[in-house]
Amino acid sequence: MTDKRDLVILGGGLVGMTLALAAARQGITSHVIDKALPEELTAEGVDGRASAISTASWNLFCNIGLEERLAPLGCPIEAIAVTDAMRPGRIDFKPEPGDGTLGRMYANRDIRIALFEAARAEPAISWSSGVEPVERQRGEHGVAVTLSDGRTVHGSVLIGAEGRQSPTRKEAGLSSARWDYSHRAFVTAITHEKPHHGVAWEIFYPAGPLALLPLLDLPDGRHRSAVVWTFDEKDAAGVSALSDAVFLGEMASRLDGIFGRIELAAPRMSYPLNFHHAPHIVEHRLALVGDAAHGMHPIAGQGLNLGLRDVGALVEVLAEGMRLGLDPGDAQVLARYERWRALDNTTVMATTDAIVRLFGVPGRLPSLVRRIGMAGVQRSGWLKRFFMDEARGMSGDLPSLLRA
């Protein structure tokens, strides 16, 4: 007998597996297909990246049963400092007492482990790893995906969650606006002499921003932060060739002593930065989520959070449609998902791109103009509140899973 599930999710990464768990909590079944094995994705040193989890995204994790697993592992973001090359005129975002934090910093590995442990215990999730789709079919009554091991899985709707190079998006003919920033992000972690006090730093330079994001102290008490440092692509090969000592020296020269002595605490990884945004994220019995639908510069740390808002919206429209007796792949259901996500996705993508371009203009005059503008934001209570609500993901029409 065919094991037909409601969703066939192609991609078992952070967004794809969160979708499977969130759907399961609403009684929606799924097949999750991923070409990587879980033990490969969670091995030490495979993914040294860290993610800023907004308040709304944290609510989602709590509402799908991950609070107990994740709560001890995240470092609260108590404030955000934004500066133009450490010159006067910075902005300090700090919530009012009682408002909670601006988010939490997590190692991607820790989130993956929590998701995988929860998925293994969830009967509504069928999970196939180490295999790839070789054929996707979307018919009038359902979808079928043939896997590289010869099996075929069946469902009502296909979900593309494979990331920026999503073959599902390409095969469906869902075009996207895209461009290359000609920048490369270097990702690592450092330990430092002085505590970070939960402050995330975004230091802008014309060649690219240097972000320092607070992590929990190591067991031996050393203070620790994640680093995302962006360079022009033409300089990337030279940066890669730097010794760790020289790399750290260059970083220290830009930190104005805020952390004291610094040491490398993780391998250096790098990846190119580009932009892509698909204006249409649904097709016949198909929906895109996360980076398959939109990929942005990491400057504001909103990439994963935007994907998790996709998850919340999609699960809500699927659950409501199914309660009304509609098929999960019904065109009305998927069209509602696309309408709901259109404004948020477009706004965040456009704003992030504008920030990248604004701070990428070199010269003293542009720097002065930026710093005057930042000083104005610093003095404006309502503007700071607006930007903090955006950073926390608590503005707009939020799905119920993203509310406290």
Describe the model.
It is a single chain. The protein has 404 residues and is an alpha+beta fold. The chain has a domain of 238 residues: FAD/NAD(P)-binding domain (3-Layer(bba) Sandwich). The chain has twelve helices and 20 strands. The strands form three sheets. Strands 5, 6, 12, 13, 14, 15, 16, 17 and 20 form a nine-stranded mixed sheet that branches. Strands 1, 2, 8, 9, 10, 11, 18 and 19 form an eight-stranded mixed sheet that branches. The chain has a three-stranded antiparallel sheet with strand order 3-7-4. The longest helix is centred in the last third of the chain and has 29 residues. The two termini are 41 Å apart. The model has no long low-confidence stretch (mean pLDDT 91).
Describe how the helices and strands are arranged:
Blueprint: E1 4-10, H1 14-25, E2 30-34, H2 38-41, E3 50-53, H3 55-63, H4 67-70, E4 75-76, E5 79-84, E6 91-93, E7 104-107, H5 108-120, E8 125-129, E9 133-138, E10 143-147, E11 152-160, H6 167-172, E12 177-192, E13 199-204, E14 210-215, E15 223-232, H7 233-241, H8 244-252, E16 262-264, E17 269-277, E18 282-283, E19 286-288, E20 294-295, H9 303-323, H10 331-359, H11 364-379, H12 381-392
Parallel strand pairs: 1-2, 1-11, 2-8, 5-13, 11-19
Antiparallel strand pairs: 3-7, 4-7, 5-6, 9-10, 10-11, 12-15, 12-16, 12-17, 13-14, 14-15, 17-20, 18-19
